[in-house]
Amino acid sequence: MKFEEYLVSLQNKTVAVIGIGVSNQPLLRLLLSRGISVTACDKKSREALGAVAEQLEALGCRLRLGEDYLKDLTEDVIFRTPGMRPDLPELTEAVARGSVLTSEMEVFLEVCPCPIVAVTGSDGKTTTTTIISELLKRAGKTVHVGGNIGHPLLAETGSMQPDDMAVLELSSFQLMTMTRSPHIAVITNLAPNHLDVHKDFQEYIDAKENIFTHQMAEDVAVFNADNLYTAEEAGRAVGRARQFSRRTEPEDGVFLRGDAIIARHDGRERQIMTTADIKLPGVHNVENYLAAIAAVDGMVSDETIRDFAREFGGVEHRIELIRTRKGVRWYNDSIASSPSRTIAGLKSFKEKVILIAGGKDKGISYDDLGPVVNDHVKLLLLCGATAGVIRRSVEQADNYNGLEIIDVKDYHEAVSIADSRAVEDDLVILSPASTSFDRFANFMERGRAFKDIVNQLP
Hints:
With about 450 residues, the chain is of the alpha/beta class. Helix content is about 35%, strand content about 20%. The strands form 3 sheets. Strands 7-8-6-9-10-11-12-13-14 form a 9-stranded mixed β-sheet, with helices on both faces. The protein has a 6-stranded mixed β-sheet with strand order 15-16-20-17-18-19, sandwiched between helices.
């Protein structure tokens, strides 16, 4: 269905949009601008929403606010916010009454007029998505970036052209109810994650698999050959399966041979670059490039890839150098919302670091984090709900050797202690291994708050 056709199909229907956050406001304004009957539902009060409430009402929007915002939903179409489970009783009751449950991203995949590349996985999504989008831009494409990064795209669909490209980062929450898959799908890796929302690890895997299970025969899916779960998924690809690997040499894909990055297809192979061409530190970023190259191979020249890799310094909040002060380097790795991300970040540095960690618990195991912290950290500063579980993972690890661990109340105290203890050539890194939702709206707000504190040091 085309974008305009979809909007016309809503003209005589009632629509509910759940969540009045920044990500849903463009959707609300789009629907209202077309004269569609819209109710915006949010748990927040009118006072908490502030001027946004009045602005939406001035456009003709009805508001349903407060604790009962999901009660008795009767609208014909309901757009859920991505982090909300689709099987909440209020939503299942509405569907039973005849409502259609969807989301901004589900509709976008249905009406987008240009090819879509989408990335999911437990780690590396943001960097891989960014590399793919920037490479396509350098190849001359007009690229629209959305999903978990960039901004909501549905409201901009009308201006997109068939020769453009859409590049998306998709979470398990966005994928849970997807019935369409992108033209090129990338799964960076899979590990237990978000088990505070998903019923179990299998549900999490099933959600992620929607990124390729609805593809067509001519589509492409890229899998990590070094990950147990994604390697198995490659055998169930609907279209062409490509793999990337640091440890093996897949017949169709991109892999590492020594320090050379090789692309292979139909029995032919070529060297694209070496790991020395990659400015970003860490083997996990080598994997991100392998995945990205496997996705754009044939659309971007090898020279363009090499030139970009030599220049690209990374994305905000991902091992981002904030400043160097008195010979001490301060890094923001706020995007590390799981133990595996923090493990990858710690392994990026040869030196032992001063680590600031902790946040909201996602119900996942921290057992693997402890040994790595003992090997790579000289001082550990902990705050947030996961402080205790991180401490236990460190102290109960076989290689624990008395690492100093200090509990702090907030980042101000953490930065103050780190600053007083760091000496020239030390590294201080915020890498929480936990989500931000105990104190911040998201990892971006968390990272910027940390950067502000560090930059205020005299």
